[in-house]
Structures
1.
Amino acid sequence: MTLPWAPGRIVRETTRLRLREFTEQDAAFILELVNEPAWLRFIGDRNVHSLADAQGYIARGPVASYAKHGFGLWAVDLRASGESLGMCGLIRRESLPHADLGFAFLARHRGHGYAREAAAAAVALAREAFHLPRLLAITDPDNTASRGARARGLRLRARVHVVRDRQAAGALHDGPRVRPAAGPGVMALVAATRPRWHWDIA
């Protein structure tokens, strides 16, 4: 897939932030972000170790998702300066029954409320622009910052056990493998690892 060189299309602006589509020009930023300790701990190694790898990540992940679903992970920039802070958006995974809210920010930009602000914008887009009937968000209980940012616009539905597909380890969008249980809004096990929080759109 050919990546656009022009600045990415702006999808939402907030008081401080701009959410826009990723382009090839974001490769250096992606290379840094996906190799930060918090990303590797809570999200996993995506085997992105060069600018070429980062370009492939963008092409096969966010850009492919824009084309297929109309949404995906978006770059989050500071409106005042244009500096890239992180990513936030909506991910449609084969392993989940509904779209999933995801985000990650560089360590030096945490603690300023950017993740909460961006997540609220993504939830609003899920409702207003994409008319999604349900939005999921799954986070590790140890990732307290992520839990706090996801809470706005979402309600806690359940604690679930998830496992990553070993065959997809290191793949671009391997995610929690869960399946609906008999009861509405309840998630059940495919295979058990540690419990994680499952949030649902309010």
2.
Amino acid sequence: MSDLYRASHRVPRKAVPCLAALGLVAGVILVESSPAVAATPAVTVVSSSSYGPEPDGFLYIVGEVLNAGTDDVTDVHVGIGLYNSAGALLSTDSAPTQLSGLEPGEKGGFVDIVNPATGYASYKIVGATASESPTPPDHNFTLQNVSDVVGLDGIHDLTATVTNNGYYIAQNVRAFFTFYNQAGAVVDVDNQPVTPSQLGIASSGTYTELNIPAHIAYSRSAVVVEGVARSFDPKLDIWKVADPVVREWIERNLGPIGRIQGAMSGAGDLGRVLAGLPAIAARSVAVLEQLETMTREGVTLSPETIAAMGRTEGRKSRWRTLALWIIAATFIAILFAVRQL
């Protein structure tokens, strides 16, 4: 994807090469063209479209990827093939999503800006790949005061206030836009920095996005804000943050609801004990009857037990007799040896 983010029809994209060089956001990190690889089942392309080639010769292919799996993913790339009118493949390319990662069920936009070969007629999405991420992306932001105002010059001015709801200081915070037509198809994507780019916990910033309808005729837009969580906020009040969690636990376990649930659980245990009382009583009566019989008549042994005891005693008696004979023989031998001296 060489020179993909060169100056395009919109001024904001001129800043992207600088951001890519700094490696601030994976959504704008550039990679060289690579052959398309097999699709990852958990990641699918749900919409795409193209416009151009523009007067500068560049073709814009935009779309949206869905994380249909159950794990967080990162390094999401979309494989694209360019074809001529006869359906022959002219070249392949790969485009990353603007967002560095996607949570399960989350969508992210992508854009591929290419200079197609002579004879280009159409493109095809040939697959999407992703890597499992050990940590979720930092999308813990909320938007307030969202507005989309059209000026006298026809330019849309999209603004909002962004608040960091995470537990970390968020750096390199950016807003990522996806624009849709009336049919719900993606017609363009873009991104803008949030000012300031570093937001502490519960702190806010703003963004401004300028969109030119002459190039993008859209009916609605979606925004996802992403940052890079670098460090804990030194001003974080851990007691204040933990208060709602602790309060919920106390109400659930020590409050009226917890007591009712405990009583219900205790009633269930008591019911199980009561249900087993007849069997326990029957076994107790049987044991008492056997003890009474043993006290009155003594212990009764079966014939087999008596025979086994006799055999055991017989074996013990034989070994005792043999031991006595050995001792006697040893004593006689000692006396005989003494008389010979």
3.
Amino acid sequence: MSGSTYKIKPQNSLAIAFVASQFTIFEGSTLTAKIWVLDDKGYKVPDAEVKAILKSKEQTLPSINNSYIISMKELPPGKHLIQLEASRPGYMKAQASLFVHVLIRGNVNGDDIVDYRDLAILVASYGKTNMFMDLNGDGIIDYKDIAIAISNYGRKE
């Protein structure tokens, strides 16, 4: 038997899948992500229990058509790690992590401070449509978005 290689594949194990593992949102926004729990064959697992944990605060995620929705409001500016756990009787548990960077409104370049660079980017984008830089959500970058950045000028994360 020396020199032989054996692969052991766990049976009835779970995996957590989602579109992106890293999210960037502005303060005051709601983090929303769709999550799937899969078995070892890649099929969706119905009726799993999925929890999101952030700094010892735990949230059980609702199930909709065999997928789960994480929705977190009021995350403070900064970088956050959200732990996900999925379990179902008869299966091995699964764990995954989501990284969330919550920016101060106006910090459009993501450097953790609202400054002249952010204002320059907004001014250069004036009149354009860009969901990320549209700070007030009205569909266009205009004086209202620049005013939001100015009101947060100098704030650091």
4.
Amino acid sequence: MSDSAKQRNRPNGVDILWRQYIEGDPAKERFVQEEMSKLVIAQQIFEMRTQANLTQAEVAALVGTSPTVMSRLESGEYDRYSLSTLRRIAEVFNKVVEVRFVEVRVRRKMSKSDARKNLSAGKEPGKQA
């Protein structure tokens, strides 16, 4: 087996940590999903700004906010995004904000008893009870 094939079959650190500390705990899984959502928004704002070769202060002036707020929005720890602020940021970069409601992805394996309950209740296979 080649070295690259061995590496593909080896679990990465994130997968190991997920299985050991998070998988199977719905509260932890939700927490990780919420944190990832914040990081995605922050990364998108950062990428739009840097691709346009603008500073946080320049974007703040165009959006009508302060450089401190722009810094917070790009931090990945901020969670008080307002739709109006995100729309103003999007407008600066000739973009639109898209909001979607999606199913919660729980990576936990379903037990056989949960699967039976779902089937007997007429729920879609693979969904949690």
